Amino acid sequence: MTNRRHMIARLAALLAATATQGCFPWMFGDEGDDVVADTDTAADTEVGTCEDFGYWPDEVTIQDAAGIDQLDGCMYVQGNVYIEQSQTLVDLDGLEWLVSIGGGLFVQDNADLMSLAGLGSLFMVDLSIFINHNDALENVTGLDGLVAAGDSLFIEENPALASLDGLGELRFVGGDVAIRDNPALPTCEAEELVARLVAHGFTGEVTIAGNGAGDCDEPDGGL
């Protein structure tokens, strides 16, 4: 917990130091999730590394271990994070520094990804979260630090997904929620997740369909 607080404090300091320079347009209005402000400065519009900027200044695609390594030390990614079409990743170990995403999070079409372990420090995604079409994904426990998604949450067509326990801290979803066509996932887990969100003010559209018929002895995360 101490390490997580230290990382969040460092992120807060980074945001405070750079927001007034126009580096984070998402903090001030709908400028687009991958736009870098202050375009008069050439360096601001170039994709670099976390060593160059102290954060990742654009969107990023991760398909293998090398894709994870490029985000070493990154606490913030300004654009979308795509973890998709991987044939080698079984987990996301190496992304432990990532605390916040200024765009959306896309975890989709990964053949062997079994776990989201490695995303445990992620607490906020500004836009939507997509967890779709991951054939081997059994749970979402790697997202156990996630508190908010600024837009929608989609969890669809993950045939091995059997639990939503990893979303026990999620309290805010700004758009809609769709949890469907996950045949190993008890429908009651999806219903419990939505009930918790509603208890914290959620008013979006809900789609729960095509999931499993298992039992839920323990409510996921409580209300």
What would your notes on this structure say?
The protein is an alpha/beta fold. It has one domain: Leucine-rich repeat, LRR (right-handed beta-alpha superhelix) (Alpha-Beta Horseshoe), CATH 3.80.10. Helices cover 18% and strands 17% of the residues. Strands 1-3-5-7-9-11-12 form a seven-stranded parallel β-sheet. The model is unreliable at 12-45 and 219-223 (pLDDT under 50).
Radius of gyration: 17 Å
Q: Tell me roughly what share of residues is in helical segments.
A: 10-25%
Number of helices: 4
What is the string of SSEs from the N terminus onward?
Answer: HHEHEEEEEEEEEEHE
The average pLDDT is 82
CATH class: Alpha Beta
Give the biggest sheet: 7 strands, parallel
Shape: globular
Which sequence of strands runs across the widest sheet?
1-3-5-7-9-11-12
The low-confidence runs, each spanning 5 or more residues with pLDDT under 50, are 12-45, 219-223
Q: Give the terminus-to-terminus CA distance.
A: 22 Å
Q: How many beta-strand segments? A: 12
Bin the strand percentage: 15-25%
- Would you tell me which CATH topology applies? Leucine-rich repeat, LRR (right-handed beta-alpha superhelix)
Supply the helix-strand structural class.
Answer: alpha/beta
CATH architecture: Alpha-Beta Horseshoe
Number of domains: 1
